[in-house]
Amino acid sequence: MSSDLTNVFAAKMLPKRELFSPGHRACQGCAPALAMRYMLKALGPDTIICNSTGCIEIISSSYPESAWGVPWIHVAFENSAAVASGVEAGLKAMMRKGRIPQRKITVLAQAGDGGSMDIGLQAISGALERGHDMIYMCYDNEAYMNTGIQRSSGTPWGAATTTSPAGTQSSGQNTWKKSLAEIAVAHHIPYVATACVSYPFDFMEKLKKAAAVNGPALIHVFAPCPTGWRCASDIAIRLGRLAVQTAAFPLYEVVDGKFRITQNVPHLKPLKLYLGPQGRYNHLTDDQIEYLQGELRRRYGLLVAKAEASQE
Amino acid sequence: MGTRKGMEVSIGIAEAVMMADVDVIPAYPITPQTHIVEHLSELVADGHLDAEFVPVESEHSAMSCCCGSVAAGARTFTATSSQGLALMHEILFIASGMRLPMVMAVANRSLSAPISIWNDHGDVMAARDTGWMQIFVENGQEAYDHMMWAFRVSEDHDVLLPIMVNFDGFILSHVVEPIEVWSPEEVKQFLPPYKPPYRLDVDKPWTFGAVGIPDIYLETRMAHNEALIDSQKVMEKAWDEMAEVVGRKYSVLENYKTDDADIVFLTMGGISETCMTAVDQMRDEGKKVGVIRLRMWRPFPFAEVAKELGGRKVVLAVDRALSTGGCGGPVASEIKAALYPLDKRPQVVEFIAGLGGRDVTIGDFKEMYDKGAAVAAGGAVPPYEMVGVRA
């Protein structure tokens, strides 16, 4: 990784131009929409977006309006990685054959957690394995929010959704959140990172690194959804920060297989601080919160160990 | 005049795709289409074709990848069969709805279950209403010629729709035939490079695949339908010009010994060749019989079908697919729809033949003729018959 990519960002150094324009139809306090804004500030106008069906697609592209200041294509739900494969291959062939000028263009495919971890996983795996020079970005709001807050394999343990409700026989989602970044790492691609909208400069730096590598990169960006998480619309950023500080969503990057924690949290905060403001966790007992906190911390310990081992 | 070479039809198709100078080939193996993409990967590996060969992980991703590469502005080809076409199904509608021109060779094969790798038209009939142009070819030469033709029609700015070139799996795909290959000059004369009116261009950003609210969806579908119907004119013009370049003339439907025929077969695909041989033999026996081979399936040539069949006594409609629990044969169903408005309609006797690779012989056609002759003589029209089915 060249050193000029690891510059520290500052708000005033960011481009003023909004390539994801305001006036779209996202809910109040939508963090995924913010992720789009940051993403295009980092990647700039020479970017092509391949979008899966989902919240971002639906809120940004209602004909005859479009929020996108860059070329943008939506084909279907489960296939943005495959569509991006085609865009990348098409540009490569046409540049090589002199049909269009040689130029660095970033191709980014994206979907939500359901479009990535459930229905789109095969297409992502295929695109990563084939080595296309593209970025795959999952904006993770931890359920199928567009269709009405149904559980996905990105929904965390204990969260209540409309298809994993809390009830007398259930404590909400009873399975573990899928580790998309770890799945990407298993494809031996040059760059994988987790990110969070609450850490915008970390997120944008990772996008720039992802665009700079020759080959596939995957970014899993955590993006709170006040509507789906049953919380106030002005606390998405605070929740994102707490998710990182409680190890519910640690931030790290994996460069050529080497792990590095990018937001060290030497003293993890109590998980209750993160869960408390969210209605989706209202039903959890203290024992259940304790259990969840223990498991998240155990996993964070494993991540720290991997990062330490990567330095050796 | 190009050179004549003996080659497997699948290889011929791949060679024609190379001549068309495609940019991207998303490919997934499925029998009996596989030889096409295998040979294309060889042509790329040996430097004969400068293209991106994308070995995708499924047909769903193959069609998705095609959408991406066409939207980027690249000439794109893929091939599939049967279950592969079924797996693409969702994206077929999107490729045509987004008006993305591309060419797909479909080596027609029956659908599971029971699993069968052998030929019928069940796969493409399930994709009938996907909004693609769909044509059928009968032999290796037709398959080869129609690759260049398909790119030309699909990419025409008055069309901008994807096209399926259907040919019978194994019966045609794996047969070695003499094929007259085009010279580079002939290709250059007939097929201009693809110039997309819109593409994913960072200097001119377009939004592709936007949400169609009820205010606009209907108009979009209407425009798509009109473009598909109007594609016939572009097809005909391209056939005319292809005849000027390589001397072979094709059309939406082709007649064989029909001038004085009271009874005509209506066939589609490779089965037509067997039918023509049967017609020759029956003509020797003094029977006034001919065959009309349907080449263009979507859009459906209602006017031409009505014109050609309207004056006959009996039409023997031979389908290679079954609309299960429905009308019987999908081709016969369209034929009847084309004939219904006429004052003087022929009787239509329907046959479903050759499902799952069951052979359809000259003898079978002769028996079909006898049943049609009985109707022509005043007999009742029988319900559709599954030819050769064991009791």
Mean pLDDT of chain A: 96
Assembly level = heterodimer
Please tell me the overall pLDDT of chain B.
Answer: 97
Distance between the termini of chain A: 18 Å
CATH topology of the largest domain in chain B: Rossmann fold
Distance between the termini of chain B: 52 Å
What count of helical segments of chain A does DSSP give? 11
- Largest β-sheet summary of chain A: 8 strands, mixed
SSE arrangement of chain B, N to C = EHEHEHEHEHEHEEHEHEEHEEHEHEHE
SSE pattern of chain A, N- to C-terminal: HEHEHEHHEEEHEHEHHEEHH
Estimated share of beta-strand residues of chain A: 5-15%
Helix content of chain A: 25-40%
Structural class of chain B: alpha/beta
Descriptive overview:
The complex is a heterodimer of chains A (312) and B (391). Chain A has 312 residues and is α/β, with parallel strands linked by helices. Helix content of chain A is 37%, strand content 14%. Chain A has helices at 31-43, 55-60, 80-96, 113-118, 121-130, 180-185, 200-212, 226-229, 236-245, 271-275, 286-311; strands spanning 47-51, 72-74, 106-112, 135-140, 166-167, 170-171, 191-196, 217-222, 252-255, 258-261. In chain A, the strands form 2 sheets. Chain A has an 8-stranded mixed sheet, with helices on both faces. Chain A has a two-stranded antiparallel sheet with strand order 5-6. In chain A, helix 1 (31-43) packs across helix 7 (200-212) and helix 3 (80-96) packs parallel to helix 5. Chain B has 2 domains: 4-246, Thiamin diphosphate (ThDP)-binding fold, Pyr/PP domains (Rossmann fold), CATH 3.40.50.970; 253-386, Rossmann fold (3-Layer(aba) Sandwich). Helix content of chain B is 41%, strand content 18%. Chain B has helices spanning 9-19, 34-45, 59-72, 82-97, 122-126, 140-155, 184-190, 214-246, 271-284, 302-309, 330-339, 362-376, and strands at residues 4-8, 24-26, 52-54, 77-80, 103-108, 133-136, 163-168, 176-180, 207-208, 253-256, 263-267, 289-294, 296-298, 314-319, 347-352, 385-386. Chain B has a 6-stranded mixed sheet with strand order 10-12-11-14-15-16, sandwiched between helices. Chain B has a 5-stranded mixed sheet with strand order 4-5-7-6-13, sandwiched between helices. In chain B, strands 1-8 form a two-stranded antiparallel ribbon. In chain B, helix 9 packs across helix 12 and helix 10 packs across helix 11 (330-339). The longest helix of chain B has 33 residues, at 214-246. The mean pLDDT of chain B is 97. Classes of the chains: A alpha/beta (312), B alpha/beta (391). At the A-B interface, strand 1, strand 2, helix 3 and helix 5 of A face helix 3, helix 4 and strand 9 of B. Strand 2 of chain A pairs parallel with strand 9 of chain B, so a sheet runs across the interface.
